[in-house]
Every structure is written in structure tokens, then in C-alpha cells.
């Protein structure tokens, strides 16, 4: 249901192509889309029923803006630019990795064959993509043995090792005629385009001849070369007599998700498959079109000579942008491949749903059980705290965050307890709790950031009462709080809540209880790890303080550069002197650390 403000904006939408940017309550862009008719498309978000991620998107929209374009093609291009610029949460996010390896023939006077992960407009010839690096390496090794070009760095006045091995034409010590290179490149191109029967036949004849002449080592080499062909170029079954390099895209949609399959057809073979699954916000055909543009915008992608897609995809706009023909096969092998891609997309999505259902029981479902046990409405964010110290020394606190039953490590925080030894015994858990709770939530209030839906404290009734006091009486906020109590074996026992510490009923065999154990173990691990790091640095600083000639600046240098006693003890005196430390002081440091026992860190 659109607000009155949005209703006014919807009434002003134009009947023209363009892009729209959806914004949340903080004016952050959360989705970018394109449309042939902005008025119809944007209104559909607020006037139609939705499910899944689309429903969640609509629930978070508080404003939008539009950009009108002259043509649908311009809308396509603008959408890609806006997605890359703003990285909206609800849009497709393709990783910009290196993709798949290619074999490249360089454009040089003395050309080379190399494996590359980057495609450049440098006049070179690129072949691939290959299913994996191993396949590309095996193919390259074979070609370098059968059709050598240049493997050395160029002229050096003497033959290189590869020349003696028969894998270099000898550019290292002589000038190779261009005609010789052209002949070799012709054979290489023919081979990489799938014409391998002639080469294989020639190799088989040479192998038989070598065996008859009792040259068994040579026969074995030729046998291995034939094997390379079978393992790389001929590994995939030929699917047609048409050797045109082409990519094929198809999709399957269900429950607000879209599954896309990409088939790479090279040398008349299905060389590689790629799949993607993500929420379907717009129409499936528009989502596929946007995906295709982003797919070929990756750094390492060579456009094929033809792209096959299902009907109803805007082939004209895509073709004009990518300058590659788009087609929908109606019959034959290519039509069967398109159907196979659709079937694979369906299987992938059904598998995704099964895994999501299982994961949901262990994450969102488990978190819901905790909130239900506390008689609270479901909340997304749980924050948990724990302390760590050694007999009051080096006291620290740590906070972890779980979102919908999964750790959100980007939200973890570490706290060094400030001046705790001057005010209290360092082992005063209630004082530690008071300080860290106040610091955490006073900052969130000051920065106007969202508060968690539940706070879990690793401790008992004392810590629980301290948190409630800080939140209610000092900060004036009300966040549900519970204490995670451990048994005599230091394992999770139960939850308590309220000023009186009422025990919360939670089935010990439920997923909710298992999630509670994971949270308590994780916050304990995080606190202990942080404490050990802090204590180790403080122990090192204390040891260095006793060394004559080592002042605060020198200690800071050593701590920053080495970080541990062992590394300083193992460092040569010359290395210490490179930090600006005199030889006498460096020797004193080494002597002091070699006789001073290092105190072990306990839990």
C-alpha cells in the first residue's frame, strides 16, 4: 500500500522508457530497475501483490526517483551503470573475478602462446574459455610440442633450452621468417577451432612408425600427445557440425527466485556451464536481460559470435548493445540445448529450496524458538557480550552479533575496559558489564543507528540486573535482555530473564538451544582471543620497560614491528639497529629477553 506521498509521485510518472531508483527510509538506494514504460512498471510495485524478496523490497520502499531515456536501449545501458555505481542491496551482484582461462596468440613479430585471465584489445587471438586451468595448460603444452612458436624472451645470441627441446623456433638466436610463423599459427587456429582429426591421424601414423623402428621413447611421446587431445579438445561430446562459438542462456522461476543457466559452446562442444540463483524482482525476461549485460561486463569475457536465449527476451536491445546476434532456436540440437538449460535451472532452484529449508530450520527457525521462549515477537538481530581477564589484569570485553541465526562478523566489536584497576578489582564482572553496555548503546543512540532486538549476556543474575539498570535508568531505552547461564562443566545450561532471573523454558534438544550454544561459544571464543592478544602485547611492553635505555618510543617501535617476545628474541641485533636502536641498547634487549621467563596465558 503506497503512502500519500508516493501516490502523488506515482500520478506524475511518464509513459516513457527509463530507469527507476527505489530508496529506503534513510534515502539509500536499494534497487535499480529499467522499464519500457516507467508509469506502468513503477506503479505495479504498489498496486499488485508480491511474494518473497519482492514483497520485502516493496515493504522497505519509502521514496523513488526516475530517469527518462530516449530509447529502451539507453535504459539498458543506464541501468548497468547505476547498478555498478550504487551497488543496491536487492540487485544482482556478479563477482568480478577473473572468470575462465583462455589461450592467447600474441600479436608480435615473434608471437607466443600463453594462458591468460585478462582479455585486452591488443590484436591477439583468444581461444576458450576452458573449463579449468588444467585443461588450458594441457592444451597449451600439446600445442607447444607440435606447433612451436616462441617460448623464450627473445633474441639473446644463443639457443634457449626450449629450442633444444623442440618447443621454440629459435627467435633467441636467429630471425624466423614470418611465413614460418604464419604457417604454425594457421595450424594452431585450426586445431583450437576443433579441427583435430587430421592432427590426430598424423600423430597416430608417426607413433606407429616410431614403434616399428623400435624407437619406443618417441612412440610414447607421440602416444602422450594423442592423449592430450583426447583429454582436452575431444573430452566433450560433439553436439553439432556447426563450430560457431556461442553462449546459451535460459532460466526457471519459482517462489520469487530466478535460476539462470549459462552454457558455453565451443568447438561444437558444450565446454562449460555456469549457474546463478537470486531473487527475481522484475519480470524474468528483464532479469535475464540485465544479467546478460552484467555477465559480459566482467573483466574476463570474450563475446561469442552468437547468443541463444528464450523467447520474449528483448533481443533487439541486447544485440544493439553487445553487437552480437541474439536468436531463439525453434528446433534441432540448439533448441534441445535450450530446453536442457531450462531443466538444469529448475533442478538447481529446487535444490536451493531444499537447502534453504534446512538452513532456515537451523538459523531463522532456531532464532524464532529463542524469541518465542522469551515471549517476544521475532527479531532479526541478537547481540551478545562476554568478558575476559587474568586475575583482574588486562580486562577486556567482546560483543558479537547474530542476524537471523547467522554470525555477522562485520558487526563484532572489541572493548578494552578503561581504568578498571583504578576503580574496581579488575575481576569485577558487574563493573565491566556496566562500562561496556553503556559504551555500546550510548554510541548507537548518539549515531542514530538501529538497536538490536535482543541482548544475551554470558553471565548470571548480577550481570543481568546491571544491564537492565544501564539501559532503563541511564540510557532510557528498553531492549529485551537475557542471561546465558552455564553449568558446572562450563557448558550452556539455560536462559534467565527479568530482575528476579526467571528461568526460560527452552527444549535442550531444539534447534533454538543449539543456536544458544553456538552464540555462547562464539562470544567466549571472541573474548578469549582478544584477551590473549592484549595480554601478550602488555606482557611484552612490561618486559621491555625493565630494559635500560628502552623508552616509550622504542617500545612502540618494537611492538609495532615485531608484536611478540619470540620474534624480538629471534631477530638479529643488526635488524634491531635498523629501527634506530643503538647497538648497546639492542644487546641489552636481547640479553634481557633471553633470561626473562615468558608468563603463559591461561583461559
TrEMBL record:
Subunit architecture: Interacts with UvrB in an incision complex.
Cell compartment(s), UniProt: Cytoplasm
InterPro entries, per the entry: GIY-YIG_endonuc, GIY-YIG_endonuc_sf, GIY-YIG_UvrC_Cho, Hlx-hairpin-Hlx_DNA-bd_motif, RuvA_2-like, UVR_dom, UVR_dom_sf, UvrABC_protein_C
Residue ranges of every copy of the UVR domain listed in the record: 197-232
Membership in a protein family: Belongs to the UvrC family.
Organism: Bombilactobacillus folatiphilus
Function: The UvrABC repair system catalyzes the recognition and processing of DNA lesions. UvrC both incises the 5' and 3' sides of the lesion. The N-terminal half is responsible for the 3' incision and the C-terminal half is responsible for the 5' incision.
SMART domains in alphabetical order: GIYc, HhH1
Keyword DNA damage: yes
Keyword annotations from UniProtKB, A to Z: Cytoplasm, DNA damage, DNA excision, DNA repair, Excision nuclease, SOS response
All residue ranges annotated as the GIY-YIG domain in the record: 15-92
Domain UvrC family homology region profile: 248-471
The name this protein goes by in its record: UvrABC system protein C
Amino acid at each position: 500500500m503506497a503512502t500519500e506521498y508516493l501516490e502523488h509521485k506515482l500520478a506524475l510518472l511518464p509513459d516513457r522508457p527509463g530507469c527507476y531508483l527505489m530508496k529506503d527510509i534513510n534515502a539509500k538506494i536499494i534497487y535499480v530497475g529499467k522499464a519500457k514504460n516507467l508509469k506502468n512498471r513503477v506503479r505495479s510495485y504498489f498496486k499488485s501483490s508480491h511474494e518473497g524478496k519482492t514483497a520485502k523490497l516493496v515493504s522497505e520502499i519509502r521514496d523513488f526517483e526516475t530517469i527518462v531515456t530516449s530509447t529502451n536501449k539507453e535504459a539498458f545501458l543506464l541501468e548497468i551503470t547505476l547498478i555498478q555505481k550504487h551497488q543496491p542491496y536487492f540487485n544482482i551482484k556478479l563477482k568480478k573475478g577473473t572468470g575462465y582461462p583462455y589461450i592467447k596468440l600474441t600479436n608480435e613479430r615473434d608471437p607466443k602462446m600463453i594462458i591468460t585471465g585478462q582479455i585486452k584489445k591488443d590484436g591477439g587471438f583468444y581461444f576458450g574459455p576452458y573449463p579449468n586451468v588444467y585443461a588450458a595448460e594441457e592444451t597449451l603444452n600439446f600445442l607447444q610440442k607440435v606447433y612451436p612458436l616462441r617460448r623464450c624472451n627473445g633474441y639473446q645470441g644463443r639457443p634457449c633450452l626450449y629450442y633444444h627441446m623442440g618447443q621454440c623456433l629459435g627467435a633467441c638466436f636467429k630471425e624466423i621468417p614470418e611465413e614460418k610463423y604464419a604457417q604454425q599459427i594457421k595450424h594452431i587456429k585450426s586445431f583450437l577451432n576443433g579441427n583435430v582429426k587430421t592432427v590426430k591421424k598424423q600423430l597416430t601414423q608417426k607413433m606407429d612408425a616410431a614403434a616399428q623402428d623400435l624407437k619406443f621413447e618417441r612412440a610414447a611421446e607421440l602416444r602422450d600427445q594423442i592423449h592430450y587431445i583426447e583429454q582436452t579438445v575431444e573430452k566433450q561430446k560433439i553436439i553439432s557440425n556447426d563450430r560457431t562459438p556461442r553462449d546459451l542462456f535460459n532460466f526457471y522461476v519459482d517462489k520469487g527466485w530466478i535460476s539462470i543457466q549459462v552454457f558455453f559452446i565451443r568447438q561444437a562442444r558444450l565446454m562449460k556451464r555456469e549457474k546463478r540463483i537470486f531473487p527475481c524482482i522484475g519480470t524474468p525476461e528483464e532479469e535475464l536481460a540485465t544479467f546478460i549485460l552484467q555477465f559480459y561486463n566482467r573483466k574476463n569475457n570474450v563475446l561469442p559470435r552468437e547468443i541463444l536465449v528464450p523467447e520474449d527476451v528483448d533481443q533487439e536491445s541486447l544485440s544493439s548493445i553487445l553487437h552480437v546476434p541474439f536468436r531463439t532456436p525453434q528446433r534441432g540440437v540448439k533448441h534441445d540445448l535450450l530446453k536442457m538449460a531450462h531443466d538444469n535451472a529448475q533442478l538447481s532452484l529446487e535444490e536451493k529450496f531444499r537447502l534453504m529449508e534446512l538452513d532456515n530450520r537451523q538459523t531463522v527457525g532456531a532464532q524464532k524458538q529463542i524469541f518465542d521462549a522469551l515471549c517476544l515477537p521475532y527479531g532479526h538481530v541478537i547481540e551478545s557480550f562476554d568478558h575476559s581477564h587474568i586475575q583482574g589484569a588486562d580486562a577486556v570485553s567482546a560483543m558479537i552479533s547474530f542476524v537471523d541465526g547467522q554470525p555477522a562478523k562485520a558487526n563484532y566489536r572489541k572493548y578494552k575496559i578503561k581504568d578498571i584497576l583504578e576503580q574496581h578489582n579488575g575481576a569485577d564482572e558487574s563493573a565491566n558489564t556496566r562500562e561496556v553496555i553503556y559504551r555500546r548503546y550510548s554510541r548507537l543512540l548518539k549515531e542514530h543507528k538501529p538497536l538490536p532486538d535482543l541482548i544475551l549476556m554470558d553471565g548470571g543474575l548480577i550481570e543481568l540486573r546491571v544491564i537492565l539498570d544501564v539501559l532503563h535508568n541511564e540510557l532510557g531505552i528498553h531492549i529485551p535482555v537475557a542471561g546465558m547461564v552455564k553449568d558446572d562443566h562450563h557448558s550452556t545450561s539455560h536462559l534467565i530473564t527479568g530482575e528476579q532471573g526467571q528461568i526460560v523454558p527452552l527444549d535442550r534438544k531444539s534447534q533454538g538451544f543449539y543456536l544458544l550454544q553456538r552464540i555462547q561459544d562464539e562470544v567466549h571464543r571472541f573474548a578469549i582471543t582478544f584477551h590473549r592478544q592484549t595480554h601478550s602485547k602488555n606482557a611484552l611492553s612490561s618486559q621491555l620497560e625493565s630494559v635500560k635505555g628502552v623508552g616509550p618510543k622504542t617500545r612502540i617501535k618494537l611492538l609495532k614491528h615485531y608484536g611478540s617476545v619470540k620474534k624480538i628474541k629471534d631477530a638479529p641485533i643488526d635488524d634491531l639497529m635498523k629501527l634506530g636502536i643503538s647497538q648497546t641498547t639492542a644487546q641489552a634487549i636481547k640479553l634481557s629477553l633471553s633470561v626473562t621467563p615468558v608468563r603463559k596465558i591461561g583461559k
